[in-house]
Amino acid sequence: MTPPDQKTVVAVPVNKPVVETEAQAHPPLLGYSDSITAAVTGINTTTGNGVLGKGTNGDGVHGISSGGNVSGVAGIHTSGGKGVYGSSTGYAGFFDGNVQVNGKMTVTGDIFLPGADCAEQFDSVGGQVIDPGTLVVIDENGALAESQKPYDRKVAGVVAGAGTYRPGIVLDKQPSETQRVVISLMGKAYCKVDAAYGEIEIGDLLTSSPSAGYAMKASDHEKAFGTIVGKALRPLASGKEIIPILIALQ
Question: What is the span of the domain harbouring residue 230?
């Protein structure tokens, strides 16, 4: 079948030189197929490129697909080499969307994450939804609930996502029939604190308080052992507020 307003493209034998053409009303090379066969195929039997694409102000190779569960561009190597290779003085690869890796990932340089903490998912008691910034404790079944009493040794961390902080990495993320919450275990996070039990200064150790889901200054050092959730990064003279803390369970 010949597409409308296009000339039929005649295949050039592999042993004949290719004639260069210039783009005018139509592309210099047009491949069209209405079957499962490729519209354009490039084959090189030695060490050259099968297909070479160069662009001055556009993409060297641009692939678009509207089919389900297929790729815009697919790179496959059958002998252990690289399926896709990118090299640049800027970003060698850029993904605007989700990325899935089925296999190992090796990084020889640093990894930079814009998030502020390392977090992990846990089930919540009774499948309840717990607000970000809430101080939580572990129940007898390993699920989490908001803290209820002072100096609780079952303190687990703070529900991630409050304020301007978001997790840099989330562990144990998996589907569940019950509600799961993301808990900040290390790094910076915003936490609900109550200064009614003592004025909070920067660097003060924080523990669970009588106010449900709120931390307070750990003034009793004997009771504080094993109940600390972290250190205050902002002072609070009075009242309740969500402030940034440095998670440091101890």
Answer: 117-247
